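Quick entry, no commentary yet.
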Amino acid sequence: AGRLVADPDRLDAGFQRDRIMTAATQIFIERGFTASSVDAIGRAAGVTKRTIYELIGDKEALFHAVCARLCATAGTFHFNAAASDLPLRDMLMDMANTILANALAPAATAFNRMLAVEALRFPDLVVSVMDSGRHEMHEKLAGVFAALVARGCIAEINPSQAADTFYDAIIGSRAMRAMLGYDEPFPPVTEIEARVDMIVRGFLKPDPGTDTSGGIA
């Protein structure tokens, strides 16, 4: 008595939506927005065109849903930099590795390449998607720097500016080169360390007299 039974219709709709999203992601990446069709996505997902319209919407709505899903997946990472028992340099190395793994992942490169192809034909659509992904990463980074400032681990800086500076210093043009087809392997540890040290010494240096016992190595 009192046992909960799942609604079969709801499970079926959720299963179908997942199949649609998986098929749409693959087709959009392979063919781009223009050359993709709801019919082709329906065939790949094993559902009717009507089901796609009922569960998600037309092709543009489907594209937005796929992009949102990819951005959300990329945003599921967590920075361990908020751990107070880690030295600052270790925190930043963890953040740098997380950023690089996210930006240089094959799926992210393929997706960004597809967006670049569609940018001239659908600039508003592509810009909104790219802004969403960048915002996700930016907010997580800025949150870490805000916490470090609040704890007195780094100088009194603008967390948003720190997030931009750190991201740009770590990534540089790697993601762009990968998108253009260059072989862009994960950088060696020594290079990541050099970039992190540059940030620590030149941008995040504590103010004179700051108590650095909470995280500066």
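second:
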Amino acid sequence: VSDMAGLAINGIRVHVYGSGIDTFSTTGSNSLYGSSGWEVPLANIVSTNVYFVELQSQGGTIISETVRVQFPGNCQQNLALVNFQQTREF
């Protein structure tokens, strides 16, 4: 998650839901994916499930478009990387 200048934004709430999942993470909680990285483990099996990802303010207001993620059902593509970049002030 980055701001309009491309700099990392930490502390933003990430909502992941769908296919029996409804959970949250916080940007900056997993630097493996960059300084504002985050991660939500969904399953330990190959899947074709659909999930939705959106950013929220700490109060729960949605501050991004909702991104639809569908896994293709093979081991080589069992990780989704979702990048958000700020396009307006909030």
